[in-house]
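Render this sequence as a predicted structure.
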Amino acid sequence: MAEVVRTKFVRAGSWTTLEYGWNVSFTCRFRDPAGAQVKVRYGYGWFSWDSQKKTLDGKDKNISVGKASVAYARVQMKVQRDEQVTYVYIPT
């Protein structure tokens, strides 16, 4: 499948979900905005945990979710100011 460039508006302050799924396999490639954080959040409520937490610095950073995951997965971002964020979604 082909890579898809996506742009979404993200508000500063709290974690915003950009992509999500259950029993899916995909990668998101981020570069900007510098200083923003990205991660995968698995599960719900008390039964949730973070993985692959990275800080963006202008270089490509990949966040991957695999079909082997037994929990609901969300790719999330936290930015320092409200802005449009562009990233690449890669189904695998």
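Summary. The mean pLDDT is 91. The chain is about 0% helix and 60% strand.
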